[in-house]
Amino acid sequence: MNDISQTVANLDGSTPFVLPPDYFSQFPEKLIQIIENEESKKAEPNFSELLGSLQKKNPLVVPPGYFNAFNIDVPGSAPNVFSLQPRKWIAYAAAACIGGLIFGLIYLSSQQPKQLTLASQTISSKTIESFLNENEALDESFKEMEFSADELAFMDVSASTISELLKDIPDTDISGFLDQQGSDESKSMY
Amino acid sequence: MLHEADDIELVRLFKQHIDREKAFTAIVKRYQEKVYWQIRRLVVSHDDADDVMQHVFIKAWKGLDQFREDAKLYTWLYRIAVNESLSFLEQQKKRAAISLEDVSGSVEEKLIQEKGFDEKEAIWKLQKAIQQLPEKQRVVFNLRYFEEMPYEEMSEVLETSVGALKASYHHAVKKIEDYILHH
Question: Which among A85, B44, B81, B172 could disulfide-bond with B141, CB atoms 3.0 to 4.6 Å apart, if both were Cys?
């Protein structure tokens, strides 16, 4: 100690703490008491072992024939009946859905003619006349657009398309047409 | 007659369930003072020391059946005492952390509340200086300075190398010297 610190070496190494009188003379007895208490807590399972060792005989007696004569009459007690069918509210909900669907369809079908009527009522006769005139003009323009046989000859049409187009025309008509076309062409060549 | 028996004999009697309580009481009587002061210097208050003492000897009662006879009984008891004291201080720290209380302050408070405390007296100044040390250094200092325990025995109690203990003690003494000179 002197090597490390002269100051600490010179200090009084005694303990300044005080303790209750007779503490050490009483402590062992107190400790054994605590240990005994703990041991007795551990010993409690032995009591249940004692219970387990006892015979499970019932010392109480029942009058002879008691259980054979035992009967209870409950007035007006009917057994509960449980329906196996689906619950009523589900059936009601399903019926409401189907009804709604039918009503909706009827309503929609009744609305369509009304719309046409309404349309005819709101359009003026002048507008209808001009619409028809326009249609006529369109028809004429479509007629002008009809292709001649020569124009068709230059069109790129596949064999399958031709056979599809001619399937409803009888063979005699086709052969007649071809004969006629052939004679016209020969005439034009000479 | 039992108080004359050595430690090995007392442990044997305890294990054989012959005069089990008497054998244990003899062990308690033999080591209670040394164990008490080791605990008291760490926890300071007598009530705390008494609680820790009870835990130490109850642990000893429970563990004595497994105690190896080649080991030294007092070394074993000291080890239990140190471990119980340190866990007590650890629990105090946790409690203080929850209640936002300063632990080192609370240990010092306990020291100040001790009967006959006088800050100017060197004997109390030393105690205050010891309380400033880290816990494990405090244990080393107490065992060496007050108990004059050899480093080899201390090594068994604390399960630490002799070299580490010597270094720890040296640091502890220097810190105490520094505290005493500056307070």
Answer: B172
Model confidence pLDDT, tens digit, residues B28-44: 999 999 999 999 999 98
Looking at residues B87-102, what average pLDDT do you find?
Answer: 79
pLDDT higher than 80, residue A13: no
CB contact under 8 A, A5 and B122: no
Residues A23-62 pLDDT 10s: 999 999 999 989 888 877 766 555 555 555 655 566 667 6
Q: Are the C-beta atoms of B55 and B45 separated by less than 8 Å?
A: no
Cβ separation B123–A12 shorter than 8 A: yes
C-alpha distances (whole Å) from B159 to each of B60, B75, B84, B110, B165 are 18, 11, 15, 30, 10
State the pLDDT at residue A69: 73
As given in the structure block, the two tokens for residue A176 are 């007649």
Cα of first residue to Cα of last residue in chain B, in angstroms, is 51
Task: Please tell me whether residue A184 adopts helix, strand or coil conformation.
Answer: helix
Q: Which residue has the tokens 């642990």?
A: B59
B179: left (phi over 0), alpha (psi -120 to 50) or beta: alpha
Q: Any idea what the Cα angle at residue A68 is, between residues A63 and A74, rounded to 5°?
A: 105
Chain B segment 31-90 residues within 8 A of A by beta carbon are 32-33, 36-37, 40-41, 44, 46, 50, 53-54, 57-58, 61
pLDDT in tens, A123-156: 778 888 888 888 787 777 666 665 555 555 556 6
Closest CA to B42 of B141, B157, B164, B117: B141
Where does residue A15 rank: exposed (0-12), middle (13-18), buried (19+ CB within 10 A)?
middle
What is the 3-class SS of A109-144, one letter each residue?
HHHHHHHHHHHHHHCCHHHHHHHHHHHHHHHHHHHH
Task: For residues B126 and B146, give the distance between their C-alpha atoms in angstroms, rounded to a whole number.
Answer: 12
Tell whether ipTM is more than 0.90: no
d(CA A9, CA B3): 36
